[in-house]
Amino acid sequence: MSDTLFSKIINREIPADILYEDEQALAFADINPQAPVHFLVIPKKPIATINDIEEEDREVVGHLYLVAAKLAKQMGFAEEGYRAVMNCNPYGGQTVYHLHLHVLAGKPMGWPPYQETLKTP
Questions:
Q1: Is residue 107 predicted with pLDDT exceeding 60?
Q2: Interatomic CA distance for residues 9 and 11, integer angstroms
Q3: CB-based contact 20:71 (threshold 8 Å)
Q4: pTM metric for this prediction
Q5: Is 100 a catalytic site residue?
Q6: What GO MF annotations does this protein's record show (predicted)?
Q7: 31-to-4, 38, 102, 105, 112 alpha-carbon distances in Å
């Protein structure tokens, strides 16, 4: 896999608003947010797409979701809810070929009729 925008962020070759980092993952604010809260969680290991996940990657992929949940709690939107999604290839909306988990929050994101009837408990 060639250098991507995300590998350059991991290597600190370009700046990013980093929210979390450990030995396996990095989380940073999306530069084109689609919700009031929108950040990405990426593995430091370069994996191009969901289709390229190998058996040995199961722990790092699971770790991305654990990081998302941890940040959701820390940032105060875990109970209200959020969307965590990965895109795969062009028809799936993937534009950077380094696996990444989008975390979006801060507004209802369900199907529009659901949003209209959304009631908080």
A1: yes
A2: 5
A3: yes
A4: 0.88
A5: yes
A6: catalytic activity
A7: 15, 9, 12, 15, 25
Of 38, 63, 98, 100, which is the active-site residue? Answer: 100
pLDDT tens per residue across span 8-47: 999 999 999 999 999 999 999 999 999 999 999 999 999 9
Instruction: Round the average pLDDT of the chain to a whole number and report it.
Output: 91
Minimal CA–CA distance to 28: which of 1, 13, 49, 10?
Answer: 10
Domain count, the chain: 1
Range of the domain at 52: 5-117
* Sheet arrangement for strand 25-29: 18-21, 25-29, 37-43, 101-105, 82-85
Burial class (CB in 10 A: 0-12, 13-18, 19+), 14: exposed
- Residue 109 — very low, low, confident or very high, per pLDDT cuts 50/70/90? confident
